[in-house]
Automatic annotation (TrEMBL):
Reactions catalysed, as given in the entry: sarcosine + O2 + H2O = formaldehyde + glycine + H2O2; sarcosine + (6S)-5,6,7,8-tetrahydrofolate + O2 = (6R)-5,10-methylene-5,6,7,8-tetrahydrofolate + glycine + H2O2
Residues making up the signal peptide according to the UniProt record: none
Keyword hit for Cytoplasm: yes
Natural source organism: Profundibacter amoris
Protein name: Sarcosine oxidase subunit beta
Amino acid sequence: MRRYSAFAIAREALRYHSGWGKAWRSPEPKKSYDVVIVGAGGHGLATAYYLGKNFGITNVAILEKGWLGGGNTGRNTTIIRSNYLQDPSAAIYEKARSLYETMSQDLNMNVMFSPRGVMMLAQTQHEIRGFQRTAQANAFQGVKTEFISPQRVKELVPIMNISGPRYPVLGALWQERAGTARHDAVAWAYARACSGMGMDIIQKCEVTAVNQSNGQVTGVETTRGPIGCKKLGILVAGNSGDLARMAGFRLPMESVALQALVSEPIKPCLDVVVMANTVHGYISQSDKGEFVIGGGTDMFNNYTQRGSFHHIEETVRALVETFPMISRMKMMRQWGGIVDVTGDRSPIISTTPLGNCFINGGWGTGGFKSIPGSGWAMAEMMANGQPGPLCAEFGLDRFAEGRFIDESVAAGVAH
Ligand code: FAD
Ligand code: PYC
């Protein structure tokens, strides 16, 4: 794999960029692998990468029914933060956030990590108490957040109306080193690094069945033929329930559509990320100048990767009081993704009833930010056969034991 560098750009500029190779190979699947990962989203690719980097396991195939990064990884609003309430969540999200800080250097591709700061507005008394509690918990967890005043909010976001009649801004939970990254680039960077280690990324290869013998996984059936494996990782977000059914178990998870939209591009006027959880809207400005806007999930289970009109109307209406300028902007595009939601709004990173079959899902509306930490923890569990400290609390057993990791406030998106 050729390194990307300033020197390489200069060299290619001199020969009309004719020398760039493909970023990853597209091989035919082999008969079997040590590890098969289902799902080439951020979580699947990051898991494969850390299997190779941290454990030297490179006889790995990543199977993807569509194109890599074409699921939620390429459809999200790219918010990265680690201001969660519970200790296990803060640990894994902060691990992920810290890996984002050096991801471009580590993977030798610019993922445009932009730690521009994320604020979650408090617009009710209840939210003030909730966010002050989170700031306190974060201080104990070593996650740097603070509860800031409405005046400080206004200084950071001059275009915001903080004294709206229905939902005045009463303060905010502020994380200065939170921010955004380019979502496709995260998937591409991991894919390129995996391919560079000799792993096979097989696109247009849908897993249709999971093969097993004596309670152990032996491989998968795919639209490109059977593929054997010693270990199987399932990282398919909204399709987690389908894959679990193929492997013979059920998940406490629901799949719903979450959607987002972007405005026409305008001059730079918003250089932090704002989440307004009471009114169900969040907003940031992209490098192109578009406002990236998202709202709540559909209130019914479905598998549509599309947006619906009533959501645009509700989301924009919700944000207009706080951002009056939106009322004069044109909205350009909308889209949706299928998110996998658990009852406690925390992920499942777990061994399963099927031997050597591991699952990672349930990131719901908030799993872009966790991609590197999740991949790190999943790789550790798959390599060692049991969960390490970063994911030990996120096992499936917590639902049988009633040991929930309640993150309904931190999820930040209405469910
Ligand atoms: P995906 O990227 O969906 O990857 C799973 C892959 O599995 C897909 O490519 C799919 O095609 C493949 N697959 C499924 N079934 C099969 C099969 N049978 N065989 C082979 N392949 C299969 N999170 C944040 O942290 N911040 C945000 O701002 C944010 N905003 C969001 C906004 C929207 C509109 C949406 C939809 C989500 C948002 N999220 C956000 C959530 C985040 O996008 C997801 O949690 C995360 O991307 C999940 O990554 P993944 O790798 O698990 O799933
Ligand atoms: O988890 O921060 C988040 C988020 C924002 C928008 C969707 N998810």
